[in-house]
């Protein structure tokens, strides 16, 4: 990323974090334990990728439009999914974003409830936009978070190698578990920017390609990444019998697939006709990331 794009990236992360702080409940609200657990997860950091994509998509079309509620809604759904994913009944993780997971700091019941609360809060936030935009944001986010996408992808991922491995199954998992929320981030940003159906579709297609590339890169990091930079141990996928692109087709094919998907993402972004220089640079940096 050039210094100018790094500056935009830093500004969008700052804007996302300020919006997350302002638009979600404080740890001092009742019941304290629930709100503290929600804040523990929300304030733990992370790349803020989904809100940044949303804000950047809006700003590529209409810089004056305010996408903060949509951006925070995306981070709430993402954070809920991480809290639930870390539970002993799913991935059973002790660390997330370099910090102890919510059920480790609190307990499992609190972690389930903190996730549930964040999911509901997300739709309160999409509903806060003006009526037509709120309707479209809610529909896009609900579909991405729902049984055919985030939850459905997670279901099949949980079954993992207990069922036969195939590229078709792997792509269903990647599209659902990862790409749907990334595509929704760009499409929701486009909705707030006032994009028509065709432009929305180009943003969505860009997010679908980017999301799949992001997941293949994520799986490769779990294979040979640096646990310190990642903030969690590596090797979990192999230990848990997870389906991965490199597991089915090999590391070289996985790296080639990332290149092809990234190129498709960049073409879709160009086709939106917006001011997408930053988004293109971000997409490129994400698939080359170390954490
Ligand atoms: C529990 C319904 C439900 C879904 C869980 C998010 C998820 C689905 C599982 C977590 C494991 C995983 C590898 C998911 C794929 C999506 C992904 C790469 C999540 C991590 O996103 P980042 O890297 O995380 O943006 P940060 O911490 O930076 O926000």
Description:
44% of the residues are buried. This protein has one domain (3-285): Farnesyl Diphosphate Synthase (Orthogonal Bundle), CATH 1.10.600. The radius of gyration is 18 Å and the shape is globular. Strands 1-2 form a two-stranded antiparallel ribbon. It has helices at 3-23, 32-42, 49-61, 68-85, 102-105, 108-126, 131-145, 150-159, 167-192, 197-224, 227-230, 236-239, 245-249, 251-271, 277-287, and strands at residues 95-96, 99-100. The mean pLDDT is 95. It has 15 helices and two strands. By secondary structure, it is mostly helical. Helix 14 (251-271) runs antiparallel to helix 15 (277-287).
What is this entry, summarized?
With 291 residues, this protein is mostly helical. It has helices at residues 3-23, 32-42, 49-61, 68-85, 102-105, 108-126, 131-145, 150-159, 167-192, 197-224, 227-230, 236-239, 245-249, 251-271, 277-287; strands spanning 95-96, 99-100.
Task: Itemize the secondary structure elements and their pairings.
Blueprint: H1 3-23, H2 32-42, H3 49-61, H4 68-85, E1 95-96, E2 99-100, H5 102-105, H6 108-126, H7 131-145, H8 150-159, H9 167-192, H10 197-224, H11 227-230, H12 236-239, H13 245-249, H14 251-271, H15 277-287
Antiparallel strand pairs: 1-2
The structure holds geranylgeranyl diphosphate.
Geranylgeranyl diphosphate is lined by residues 46-47, 49, 81-82, 84-85, 97, 150-151, 154, 177-178, 215, 218.
């Amino acid at each position: 990323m050039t210094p100018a794009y790094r500056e935009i990236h830093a500004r969008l992360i700052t804007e996302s974090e300020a919006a997350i702080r302002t638009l979600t409940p404080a740890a001092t609200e009742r019941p304290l334990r629930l709100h503290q657990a929600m804040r523990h997860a929300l304030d733990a950091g992370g790349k803020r990728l989904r809100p940044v994509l949303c804000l950047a998509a809006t700003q590529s079309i209409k810089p004056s439009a305010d996408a903060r509620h949509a951006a925070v809604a995306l981070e709430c759904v993402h954070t809920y999914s991480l809290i639930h994913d870390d539970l002993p009944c799913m991935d059973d993780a002790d660390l997330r974003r370099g910090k102890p997971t919510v059920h480790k700091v609190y307990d499992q019941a609190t972690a389930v409830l903190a996730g549930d609360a964040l999911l509901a809060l997300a739709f309160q936030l999409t509903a806060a936009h003006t009526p037509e935009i709120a309707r479209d944001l809610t529909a896009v986010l609900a579909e991405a978070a729902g049984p055919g996408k985030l939850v459905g992808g997670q279901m099949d991922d949980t079954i993992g190698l207990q069922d036969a491995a195939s590229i078709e199954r792997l792509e269903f998992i990647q599209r659902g578990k990862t790409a749907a929320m990334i595509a929704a981030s760009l499409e929701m940003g486009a909705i707030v920017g006032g994009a028509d159906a065709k432009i929305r579709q180009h943003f969505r297609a860009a997010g679908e390609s980017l999301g799949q590339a992001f997941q293949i890169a994520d799986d490769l990091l779990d294979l040979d990444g640096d646990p310190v930079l990642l903030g969690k141990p590596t090797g979990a996928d192999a230990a848990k019998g997870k389906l991965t692109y490199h597991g089915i087709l090999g590391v070289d094919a996985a790296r080639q697939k990332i290149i092809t998907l990234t190129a498709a993402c960049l073409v879709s972004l160009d086709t939106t006709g917006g001011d997408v220089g930053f988004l293109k640079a971000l997409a490129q940096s994400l698939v080359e990331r170390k954490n």
